[in-house]
Hints:
Elements: E1 8-12, E2 18-22, H1 33-52, H2 59-81, H3 88-119
Antiparallel strand pairs: 1-2
Amino acid sequence: MGSGEGHHTQTTDVAGHQASAPEHAGTAHGGYRVYWVTWGWLLLITLLEVGVVFVPMPRWMLTLLLVILAGMKAGLIIAFFMHVRMERISFIYTVLVPMVLGVILFFALIPDGLHTLQMR
C-alpha cells in the first residue's frame, strides 16, 4: 500500500447499490466529532434554559420559550444520538406528529384549565 491508501470494505445500501467505504470510517478519528458537536449544542441549549428562568418576562412567554428549547433538544437527540437524521420520514413521524398532537391536546385542555382557575 502506498501513502494515502486505506483499507476499503464493500458495503451495500438499502437500494442494493455497492459502495466502497474505508474501514476506519465512523471511528474516533472523525466519527465521534458529530457527537461532541451535538453535545455542545445540547449544553448550550441547557444553559439557555437555565439562564432564561432568571430573565423577567411573562410566565406564558417563559413557558413557551422553555417548551421550544426542550423541543430543540429532543430534536437533536433524536436526530443525532438515535441516528434518525438520515431517515426523513422517520424523523417526521418521531418528532412532528407527537409535537402536533401535543399542541392539539394543549389547546383542547385550555378551557378546562381556565374553568379551574375561575373556581379558585
